[in-house]
Amino acid sequence: MKSITQLPTIKGIEQIYTGCLAQGAYYIQSKGEVAIIDPLREVEPYIEKAEKDNAKIKYIFETHFHADFVSGHLTLAKKTGASIVFGPTANPSFEATIAEDNQEFKVGDFTIKVLHTPGHTMESSTYLLKDKNGKDLAIFSGDTLFLGDVGRPDLAQKAASMTQEELAGMLFESLRNKIMPLADDVIVFPAHGAGSACGKNMMKETVDTLGNQKKMNYALRADMTKEEFIKEVTDGLAPPPLYFPLNVKMNKEGYDDLDEVLLRGTRELSPDAFETAANETGAIVLDVRHQNDFVKGHIPRSVFIGIDGGFAPWAGALIADTAQPILIVAPQGREKETVTRLSRVGFDNTLGFLKGGFEAWKSAGKETDTLKSISAETFKDQLLSQNIPVFDVRKESEYLSSHVKEAQLTSLDFLNDHLSAFPKEKDFYLYCAGGYRSVIAASILKARGIHNIIDVAGGYAHIKKTEIPVAEATCPSTIKQ
């Protein structure tokens, strides 16, 4: 969930970091005026904070049209009367201020200057914060500059009618001309941290000085040529999640208020009503309990994505279509949280949740299913005595580092592209790093009629503790993205 960190070095600035999205929003307050940068979908915390500070939200600054989450700019503007501000070239379908490069906005004693920094997207802008004396204090860099990385230049190719190499070249110029000339003591507040799909090499820290980034960020090397930058920034980019363009569309064109989404999504459904809704609407039954609970028993053909893992990004990557109807099986008391977190990545078509959870489903005598799961020790014994196929659903980088010798790579990120790789009748093993992703993968396979799965509980973390032969620093054996 969200954590709010007071940054004592700059009074009046708070970073609101949401770990499950690896996303940073910002609250800036001075003399009763507030600016919010890149707000989350649920806006009440910002409003409550401003009321507590006896302040008024004056501006909502968006660094760009986000792809990995739905911003709260429209709802926040509606509820507060604040002006939405985008950088140059933005063309939203709603009323907003489209700032000019170097245009300045006053927030109490602070001045926020717009630096147009295209490259990640064409409208991408960095907001430079100045104090009352005109001293540069901080930059809110959006997806232009991360800590340890820069924004990927391949997401806006279609909209910009440019190649990723051309966008990377623009990003190079933006960094060199707008950001790197700033003083080393300027603080960098990025839109994302480690774990976000918007970059590939981000640090776990969420705040740093620009001077330190100039020293250690590969993309800010002073002696780097434009050609070197383009090559390094575009090298090794994995395909973006399929829900990204849909989130951009929502951020650009509009969406339902979260209140309406919650009203629909938190309807209590009895087991009979739940079953009827699933049959009549074609909804995905999404089970967000712990993987151990799902393994022991679940609704047939339901998909597992646990609320306590990388929930929203995995839902976005694997369900993909944000219009897909969804029915929820959740731990008691976490239904609203589930609907809220789905809405953050654009899944607004939640139809309700199973009242009483899975236990109510069982008590009603409904059909149930289980997933065969074994320990790493049992896996070792069976692997040594039988010739059963093994599949590794981790990321390619994890697989390349070390994997079970017999394992084939079928990354969860692209599982839907590799369904033909799995045997339809012969049993096979499935593992990930810690047991979360393998159960997600198993649930998807079972929903598609593949039931001959043996999950390795605890994943590679437990496998390494046995003496199962592993391979290190090799190429993927069969499956490539």
TrEMBL record:
Keyword Metal-binding in annotation:
yes
Domain (Rhodanese) ranges: 279-370, 384-472
| Keywords carried by this UniProt record | Metal-binding
Which InterPro entries does UniProt cross-reference here?
Answer: Metallo-B-lactamas, Mito_Persulfide_Diox, POD-like_MBL-fold, Rhodanese-like_dom, Rhodanese-like_dom_sf, RibonucZ/Hydroxyglut_hydro
Q: Which GO terms describe its molecular function?
A: metal ion binding; sulfur dioxygenase activity
The family database entries (Pfam families) matched by this protein are listed as: Lactamase_B, Rhodanese
Q: Does the keyword Metal-binding apply?
A: yes
Listed GO biological process terms: glutathione metabolic process; hydrogen sulfide metabolic process
Question: Which PANTHER family does the UniProt entry name for this protein?
Answer: PERSULFIDE DIOXYGENASE ETHE1, PERSULFIDE DIOXYGENASE ETHE1, MITOCHONDRIAL
The entry's protein name is: MBL fold metallo-hydrolase
Q: Whose protein is this, by species?
A: Planktosalinus lacus
